Amino acid sequence: MGHPYAPAELQLPGYVPLQLSQGQILAPYLGASLLLVLVIWLVSGKCRGLSKTDRLLMCWWEFTGLTHIIIEGTFVFAPGFFRKENPNFFNELWKEYSKGDSRYVARDTATLTVEAITAVLEGPASLLAVHILQIAVCLGQLYGCLVYFITAYLDGFNFWVSPFYFWAYFIGANSFWVWIPTLIAMRSWKKICAAFRAEEAKKTK
Amino acid sequence: MGHPYAPAELQLPGYVPLQLSQGQILAPYLGASLLLVLVIWLVSGKCRGLSKTDRLLMCWWEFTGLTHIIIEGTFVFAPGFFRKENPNFFNELWKEYSKGDSRYVARDTATLTVEAITAVLEGPASLLAVHILQIAVCLGQLYGCLVYFITAYLDGFNFWVSPFYFWAYFIGANSFWVWIPTLIAMRSWKKICAAFRAEEAKKTK
To answer: Which of B3, B10, B22, B202 has the fewest CB atoms within 10 Å, i.e. the most exposed one?
Structure first.
């Protein structure tokens, strides 16, 4: 029984083909995420004293935290997801994403390690994120992305079905976890520096 | 031509046996490190206003920064170090360390990735370390250790010649980069929290 992934010589005994279409997988994920963000945006609007940036950050931290725990957690704790006769939504989602990076179905250890750290540590920490924790989680996300991209490069850089999946999944989907944490880490850095300057100014008075 | 590493089936064509003894490798590294720490300790003692903790931290950041750049850098940028007919000190050091973790001679991609990030990013950042950079580098070191230990576990946990090398090199040597960054990160966290509280107190006055 063949599989759609690259490289073609990858062995996946017992692979059960995808039953859901790309739309049936992406629409619920993106729809649920959008709904979550909308609810947090509207509810946080009722709280006085929160700036628009604060509210946007709350939306991001809830979204990324739940993605880490639910989406990445279901990959980490489902070793045989591609062999399941009655796959659930998340099993199907990871079979679809593997078109952009077959190291997921192949259960590459570096990829699994980064996902495990992300699901177990970064996920819960995202939901709690305040000043210092924000910069800590952002740096963790950036370190994880570095390991993810560098190991892919060193291991041959041939894990995608076609350029579409390379750009849409491997580069496109992951890029959000590069530029958003970069922006938030820079903002946190400035806030922490300002706090130190304020403390310093107080001492020298 | 055989090699001394585990697992025995590991293929290392062109392996050149170790010419230096364990003592000839460890003594220069530990001696040079001790000398460096001693010099920084004595010189920093001449600066007024530095607490003993500040001076200890300076010693640590210089030591860990130079270790990252020089020791780990020579591994990252010497792909064929175990095949060199006239190996330099660092080639020999990595052949010795590989007795505790053969993923170094095997050039495992996850290990190489963590070492590359450590040598190129964490090393220079260690030398510059001030408040926020300290917590950033510590978190990076801890993330790197997590990836290092978890990938070893997932990949079979059989990369050492004997229990001695497991405990002395794999666990012992690396443990310094677990407990010292943990202590420094906790200290930085408290300092940052204190700075935020001071800033807050100033605002509400």
So the answer is: B22
Task: Look up residue B148 and give its two tokens.
Answer: 């290092």
Size of the A and B interface in Cβ pairs below 8 Å:
88
Tokens of B137: 């580098």
pTM over 0.80: yes
Of B157, B128, B146, B130, nearest in space to B182 by CA: B146
* Per-residue DSSP letter, A49: T
Q: Which residue of B has its CA nearest to A143?
A: B140
Q: Name which of B154, B48, B15 is nearest A103 in CA terms.
A: B154
Whether the predicted pLDDT of A179 surpasses 70:
yes
Q: What is the average pLDDT score of chain A?
A: 93
B118 → chain A, closest CA residue: A143
Asked whether the predicted pLDDT for residue B205 surpasses 70, the reply is: no
Residues 6+ apart with CB under 8 A from B144: A143, B114, B117, B118, B122, B177
Q: What is the pLDDT of residue B202?
A: 79
Sign of the C-alpha dihedral computed for residues B40, B45, B50 and B54 taken in this order: positive
d(CA B28, CA B42): 21
CB contact under 8 A, B135 and A136: yes
- Are A132 and B189 within 8 A, CB to CB? yes
Question: For testing the chain B interface, which of A147, A157, A200 should be mutated: the one with the most B CBs within 10 Å?
Answer: A147
In terms of Cα–Cα distance, which of A143, A123, A142, A136 is closest to A61?
A123
Query: In the prediction, which pLDDT does A2 show?
Result: 84
Which tokens sit at B120?
A: 């190129």
Summarize pLDDT for B127-144 with one digit per residue, the tens. Answer: 998 788 999 999 999 999
